[in-house]
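Researcher: Let's do a round of design. I'm pasting the structure tokens now; please hold your answer until I've finished.
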């Protein structure tokens, strides 16, 4: 199987073969803009509800971890002081 490339010079051929060929910056940013248009952004109410849920769950989990830490510390201190 033969690989044929139409290139202007040897340097660009070697860059293409090594996979180091750079994309043009304008085409990169056009691609980014196109991908951002595909994103389905949440509406304000949904974003607010999800943010509140994350904060509440984080606080509850922090309290649970603090209680477990206190109980384990008490248990270890009790065992050490026997």
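Researcher: That's everything. Go ahead.
Model: Designed sequence:
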């Amino acid at each position: 199987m033969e690989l044929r490339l139409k290139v202007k010079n040897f340097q660009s051929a070697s860059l293409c073969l090594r996979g180091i060929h750079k994309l043009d910056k304008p085409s990169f940013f056009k691609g980014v803009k196109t991908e951002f248009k595909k994103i389905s952004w949440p509406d304000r109410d949904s974003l607010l509800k999800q943010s509140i849920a994350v904060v509440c769950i984080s606080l509850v989990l922090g309290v649970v971890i603090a209680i477990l830490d206190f109980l384990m510390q008490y248990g270890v201190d009790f065992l050490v002081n026997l």
